[in-house]
Every structure is written in C-alpha cells, then in structure tokens.
Design goal:
This is Peptidase A1 domain-containing protein. The structure is a single chain. With 176 residues, this protein is mainly β. The protein has one domain: Cathepsin D, subunit A, domain 1 (Beta Barrel), CATH 2.40.70.10. It contains 2 helices and 17 strands. The strands form 5 sheets. The protein has a 4-stranded mixed beta sheet with strand order 2-3-6-15, with no helix packed on it. A 4-stranded antiparallel beta sheet has the order 5-4-10-11, with helices on one face. A 4-stranded antiparallel beta sheet has the order 8-9-13-12. The protein is globular, with a radius of gyration of 16 Å. It starts with a strand and ends in an 8-residue tail after the last strand.
C-alpha cells in the first residue's frame, strides 16, 4: 500500500501535496499542487493552469485519425468521438494514456490513473474528460481528486499518523 503524508484537513477533507503529474510517463510540468481527496465529488477538478496544461498534454497525444472533438456532445466540456460510436468506455481507452500523480519525492508515492479513472462514456457513444476546470465552477485554485479518479482503489485514511494510502482493488467483486 502507498502512504502519503497528509498536509492537513480542509474542512472534513484530506489534503496531500502533488509533486508531479505525468501523462503517459512524461512530465506535464504540473507540480506542487495541494490536492484534496474527496470521494463525495463526482469528478476531479484542477485549477485553471493545471487543467489547461493537462488538457494540452492529452490533446497532443490523441491520434486525430482515430478521435475527433465531439462538439455536439454537451455531456461534459471536453468530449471525443471515434469513427463509430463507442459501445463502452473500454472501447475508447486504448486511445488514451495513463495519468500518474506523484505525491512525494522521497518515497515515490504514486496514484496511477488508467483512462477508465478519468474518462466518462456518454449515451451518444463518445468519451469525455472527467477532469474539469475547477476555476470555471467556482473552486478557484482548489484541486480535488474526486470519485471518478478513485475508481477501483481502496483508500485508507490514518488520521492518527496523518497519512492516507491507497491500493488497487476490484470494487466490482464482493469480499469473500
């Protein structure tokens, strides 16, 4: 299990410091963000600068022969469509790379986000980015890792030691 030191509490929410955000194993230049982990938020939100940098990294890596902007799909602000509608999210994930959130230099604690943990499949057969610009919804510089990005992760809060940890888990399977 990975454990990261908590910066403190933001209301009732736990906060950690992001050292680096990687997209497909490549540094995005997003560093030093305080991050709140909140399973009560449906989506993940980054401040405007971090959001724009991440979106640029994603768009640079999209094969425009396979995916185009789905401008008519208003499910979320940024959506893509394939040459034919995607039947499920799994059909679209091969076109996207994983995100890695690194929380500390010393222990190299990372939260790996597969495309399933940051994309949404719409009823129009498109996929949309489930990471939103928090500045556009009144969050200012607050950065939130929401429920979408905690998909198939068991998150453990150790309030006594002021640590938070996570481990991959198959949340579709009931414990035995």
């Amino acid at each position: 299990m990975m454990l990261s030191r908590l910066l403190g509490l933001f209301g009732h929410l736990s906060s950690v410091n992001l050292q680096n955000l990687l997209f497909g194993g490549q540094a995005t230049g997003i560093k030093g963000l305080p991050i709140i982990l909140d399973s009560g938020s449906t989506f993940t939100y980054f401040n405007s600068d971090a959001y724009k940098t991440l979106l640029s990294s994603i768009k640079k890596n999209i094969d425009t022969k396979q995916l185009t902007d789905a401008v008519n799909d208003k499910s979320l602000p940024v959506c893509w469509k394939g040459s034919k509608p995607f039947k499920s999210l799994i059909d679209a994930t091969r076109y996207f790379k994983p995100l890695t959130l690194s929380f500390t230099k010393a222990k190299n604690i990372q939260l790996q986000l597969t495309p399933e943990a940051y994309l949404i499949h719409t009823d129009k057969g498109n996929v949309c980015l489930g990471i939103l610009n928090g500045s556009e919804v009144g969050l200012g510089d607050v950065n939130i890792i929401g429920d979408i990005s905690m998909l198939d992760k068991m998150v453990i809060y150790d309030n006594e030691k002021q640590q938070i940890g996570w481990v991959p888990a198959n949340c579709n399977k009931l414990p035995s």
